[in-house]
């Protein structure tokens, strides 16, 4: 069986279906899925693109054929940002085979050694949570937009892990890194035509302008990471491990002393790209999840009351909430899960590809198609969730009131490329959210409408339209 084409035409000349994606392609795909089913295809420029539009399709591809669908799509912009001075791909994001596997294993081991899931890292997250809640308190119950501070606090956790240092909010280097990251996410979202037809970057117009901005920001990011690595080399001590860079340099030194010398996964070019990827992926996604969490609290005061009751009946006030408190706070944890489900922070994951021709649920898929999982189709599927558009944390609690995750809950994706930062993100979401809830009642500004949950835009992540809250100390 061939693949059903989403339209009986391939879109407009050159650009294919890309111009019809809209600002939230996940919603466009949901609509198309109603007519064309759970596996359908369309053209992004010349590139045949397969949309996996329900749980069965995503599971069959990413789990059932994990090796075949474990590759990244060779899209022009992602290839550009992952290519080193030597013209080769580097780092975890776009590579495949041994370089990717080694990078992934090394990252997971290093983050674990640096305290992921343990008290060492928890202390850092709690320090950032303390900065965040103090800043909330400074508004004395007056309205403010929490996003900038949430972004900085989350970002400082990944900065501590990668660079061994946190930044003060006004530090120009930090401000520039965060601005670049936000801008980059926006530009990547607009880069559909470029991915399809790279030569468009030579023609005057918005595509060329976007491309020039991508090149400039990428250069600045790589320069910053190069400077960070150099700073570490200048102060290097083989007996000390301050962060991910030090771990990488230790490994490089060991390989340099071995007969085969430094191997490709441990080239500086890979280190620079991994630092950029961890900073980018580790900042925006987690911060936006917390931002959605606060928005859901504005809409669901009854949920917030239950969180406060649970907190008051178990851990109380006077000490920060830690990971050890987690078993006592199943409702709060269920709220974190429900936030991730309904927020759809990464609705389309990161572009994948299939390494060889295959058959998926009866459809023939040619080799090396672009593959897009629509995770939102899973998160709002009424066959999987009762009343899916309602914010209801109880769906993540079993009969005994314990946290329960169905297999179709997959905010970090599934399969071989599943998010490598999952453990860190889960820890951060719980600790930041729990400590905000312990300190404040979050409510909408007086005399204004509750900001909508239906207004959002999707770049790398899906973010609600800016909104303000009042944080009333408890
Ligand atoms: C709420 C927070 C987060 C969400 C929702 C999220 C989601 C995702 C998703 C959906 C993917 C694509 C997986 C696939 O292709 O199937 C991904 C990949 C990735 N994520 Fe995350 N992520 C989060 C936090 C983080 C953090 C904190 C880091 C920090 C290091 C991180 C680093 C990465 C990297 C490096 C990849 C690429 C992995 C690979 O290609 O092997 N993410 N993430």
UniProtKB/TrEMBL annotation:
Record keywords: Heme, Iron, Metal-binding, Monooxygenase, Oxidoreductase
Coiled-coil positions are none
Question: What is the name attached to this protein's record?
Answer: Cytochrome P450 2J2
Q: What is one process in the GO biological process aspect for this record?
A: organic acid metabolic process
Required cofactor(s)? heme
The keyword Metal-binding appears for this protein = yes
Which residues participate in heme binding? Answer: 419
Entry similarity comment: Belongs to the cytochrome P450 family.
- Give a Pfam family name: p450
**What would you give as a GO molecular function for this chain, any one?**
iron ion binding
Its domain of life? Eukaryota
């Amino acid at each position: 069986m061939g693949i059903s084409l989403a339209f009986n035409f391939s879109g407009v000349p050159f650009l294919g279906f890309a111009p019809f994606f809209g600002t939230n392609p996940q919603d466009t795909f949901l609509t198309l899925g109603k007519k064309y089913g759970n596996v359908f295809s369309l053209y992004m420029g010349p590139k045949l693109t397969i949309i996996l539009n329900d749980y069965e399709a995503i599971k069959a591809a990413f789990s059932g054929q994990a090796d075949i669908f474990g590759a990244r799509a060779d899209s022009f912009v992602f290839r550009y940002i992952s290519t080193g001075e030597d013209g080769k791909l580097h780092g975890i994001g776009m590579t495949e085979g041994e370089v990717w596997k080694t990078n992934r294993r090394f990252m997971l081991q290093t983050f674990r050694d640096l305290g992921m899931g343990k008290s060492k890292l928890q202390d850092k997250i709690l320090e950032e949570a303390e900065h965040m809640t103090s800043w909330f308190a400074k508004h004395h119950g007056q309205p403010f937009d929490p996003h900038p501070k949430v972004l900085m606090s989350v970002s400082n956790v990944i900065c501590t892990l990668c660079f061994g240092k946190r930044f003060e909010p006004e530090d120009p280097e930090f401000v520039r890194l965060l601005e670049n990251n936000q801008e980059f996410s926006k530009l990547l979202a607009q880069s559909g035509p470029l991915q399809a037809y790279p030569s468009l970057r030579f023609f005057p117009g918005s595509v060329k302008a976007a491309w020039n901005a991508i090149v400039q920001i990428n250069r600045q990011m790589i320069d910053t990471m190069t400077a960070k690595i150099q700073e570490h080399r200048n102060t290097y001590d083989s007996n000390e491990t301050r962060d991910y860079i030090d771990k990488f340099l230790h490994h490089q030194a060991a390989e340099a002393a071995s007969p085969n010398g430094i191997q490709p996964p441990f080239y500086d070019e890979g280190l620079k790209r991994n630092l950029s990827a961890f900073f980018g992926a580790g900042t925006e996604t987690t911060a936006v999840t917390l931002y959605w969490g606060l928005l859901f609290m504005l809409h669901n005061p009854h949920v917030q009351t239950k969180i406060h009751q649970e907190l008051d009946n178990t851990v109380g006030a006077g000490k920060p909430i830690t990971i050890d408190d987690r078993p006592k706070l199943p409702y709060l944890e269920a709220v974190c899960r429900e936030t991730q489900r309904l927020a759809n922070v990464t609705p389309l994951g990161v572009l994948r590809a299939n390494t060889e021709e295959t058959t998926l649920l009866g459809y023939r898929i040619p080799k090396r198609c672009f593959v897009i999982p629509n995770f939102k189709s899973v998160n709002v599927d009424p066959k999987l969730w009762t009343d899916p558009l309602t914010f209801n944390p109880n769906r993540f609690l079993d009969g005994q009131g314990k946290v329960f995750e169905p297999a179709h809950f997959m905010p970090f994706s599934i399969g071989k490329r599943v998010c490598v930062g999952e453990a860190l993100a889960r820890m951060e979401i719980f600790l930041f959210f729990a400590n905000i809830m312990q300190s404040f009642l979050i409510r909408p500004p007086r005399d204004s409408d509750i900001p909508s949950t239906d207004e959002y835009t999707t770049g790398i992540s899906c973010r609600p339209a800016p909104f303000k809250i009042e944080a009333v100390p408890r």
